[in-house]
Amino acid sequence: MATTTVHLLRHGEVHNPDGVLxxxxxxxxxxxxGQQMAHRVAGHLSDAGRDVVGVVASPLQRAQETARPxxxxxxxxxxxxxxxxxxxxxxxGSTIGKNPGQLLNPxxxxxxxxxxxxxxxxxxxxxxxxxxxxxxxARRAFDGHEVVLVSHQLPVWVTRLSYTGRRLAHDPxxxxxxxxxxxxxxxxxDRFVGMHYTEPAADLLAGANPVAGA
Length: 214
What we know:
Elements: E1 3-10, H1 32-47, E2 52-57, H2 61-73, E3 79-80, H3 124-141, E4 146-151, H4 153-163, E5 182-188, E6 191-198
Parallel strand pairs: 1-4, 2-3, 2-4
Antiparallel strand pairs: 1-5, 5-6
Helix pairs in contact: 1-2, 3-4
């Protein structure tokens, strides 16, 4: 059977000086460091002679900007898949990620009743459903080759948990999904056979803005 690799690429650092949980809010672009991260990933893949024949990104600006250097490196047209979008989050637009003490405010308590779902946003299970559908469609479309899907930290992480048979509920501080990282899923035909994680922009992570999209 043909071996296919689906690379889940998290976007690079975002220009976000105010520490806003930007979620799906439009207009959040990559920082200068984020642009460097995007080019670093493109070079990592192209210099290794990887067989990348497709690049597909979330519709959000930061994902599109992260995807473009890789698409250019392989002379490919960038495609968009709405299923790769950031997780929905009712804290979107707040600065809770920068100042978590705000969660002590009673107006937020109704959102915190079930952190295992989580109750403040799109469920982990729903994210896995849409992400795995996108992965499966990419696997079929680029059978026997490699494809890069550019998404966001939480959707990538819960997808990884799903494929590796782990519980979706988790401690966000323990996610192994840094900025501009690659979570590479390998398939033998339609059977998942392995996962490999790499950080092509590891040297650029020190000092990067830690506030994620959701």
